[in-house]
Automatic annotation (TrEMBL):
Entry's family note: Belongs to the peptidase A24 family.
Residue ranges of the TM segments: 12-34, 148-166, 199-219, 248-265, 277-295
Annotated organism of origin: Shewanella violacea (strain JCM 10179 / CIP 106290 / LMG 19151 / DSS12)
Prepilin type IV endopeptidase peptidase domain sequence ranges: 153-261
Protein name, as recorded: Prepilin leader peptidase/N-methyltransferase
Length: 305
């Protein structure tokens, strides 16, 4: 293992190529997570809701249960990240293994189902390609190190969270909270930040957006963002310390505002309609992971020069 790490350390482009192929395959699985995980959550909510209503409010079972049932209508009873296998959502034909190859499979099919010629969303190869490129870049940046391994795990989960938030405006605790604890654990050895900076960062990340949420709510009577956004920022505080939180908040706010304005101008979004903020926090946090300390150093040197 040591010899292999040494070889890869001296051949970073080879390491990056291997990382790209591996990550693109994982990207194919992330497409499954983005699509199926919300359905699994809604089914769990339905079961919990029925159990609660059956005990306390039987008269509400039908209307509320029917609403949840519509959200998961059309999916088989056994539906998780593994079962059933991938199939065309229209004709239900199983997708052949070679058609599941990252990016290449979609190109082979020319973006259409091999059986019924229904269009296959370009989002699938885009996520596979994005995942591969992101991890290939991490390979070049960190080399074959523990930091690379942890950063890769973080990248995988961030991509899944971004896709789910774009689709459902939801950042599941089942994904954000394990990331938060993982960040605190790996920094016990100061992998990315000192233990104290990580702990303060987790608390500061959550409380900063929590404070903004309640200030906005008291002033307007409306919810400005979801609690998942607080937890995602806490994740970055736990991973990289409190020092990078200001730039993550600033960058995500700027990007979110620009995208929101562009959507309103293009009439793809009406004023007052919510947009998911998680993807912008995820992007800003990923950038901070790579260049955050350099950005802070540059800013401070400019400020005090």
């Amino acid at each position: 293992m040591t010899e292999l790490i040494t070889i890869l350390s001296h051949n970073l482009w080879l390491f990056s190529a291997i990382a790209f192929i591996f990550a693109a395959v994982i990207g194919s699985f992330l497409n499954v997570v983005i699509h199926r995980f919300p359905v699994m959550m809604k089914r769990e909510w339905q079961q919990e809701c029925n159990q609660y209503l059956n005990e306390y409010h039987k008269e509400l079972i039908d209307p509320i249960s029917n609403e949840l049932e519509r959200a998961i209508d059309g999916y088989p009873e056994k539906y998780n990240l593994i079962v059933p296998g991938s199939a065309c959502p229209k004709c239900k034909t199983d997708i052949k293994p070679w058609h599941n190859l990252p990016v290449i499979g979609w190109l082979m099919l020319q973006g259409k189902c091999a059986s019924c010629s229904s269009p296959i969303s370009a989002r699938y190869p885009i996520i596979e390609l994005l995942t591969g490129l992101a991890v290939a870049f991490l390979a070049l940046h960190f080399g074959p190190t523990l930091e690379f391994a942890f950063a890769t795990v973080l990248t995988f989960v961030l991509i899944a969270l971004t896709g789910i938030d774009l689709d459902e405006m939801l950042l599941p605790d089942q994904l954000t909270l394990p990331l938060l604890w993982l960040g605190l654990i790996i920094n016990l050895d100061s992998t990315f930040a000192s233990p104290s900076d990580a702990l303060i960062g987790a608390a500061a990340g959550y409380l900063s957006l929590w404070s903004v949420f309640w200030a906005f709510k008291l002033l307007t009577g409306k919810d400005g963002m979801g609690y998942g956004d607080f937890k995602l920022l806490a994740v970055f505080g736990a991973w990289f310390g409190w020092q990078l939180l200001p730039q993550i908040i600033l960058l995500s706010s700027i990007v979110g505002a620009v995208v929101g304005i562009m959507l309103i101008i293009s009439k793809r979004l009406n004023k007052g309609n919510p947009i998911p903020f998680g993807p912008y926090i995820a992007l800003a946090g990923w950038i901070a992971m790579i260049w955050g300390n350099n950005i802070n150093t540059w800013y401070l040197s400019t400020l005090y020069s």
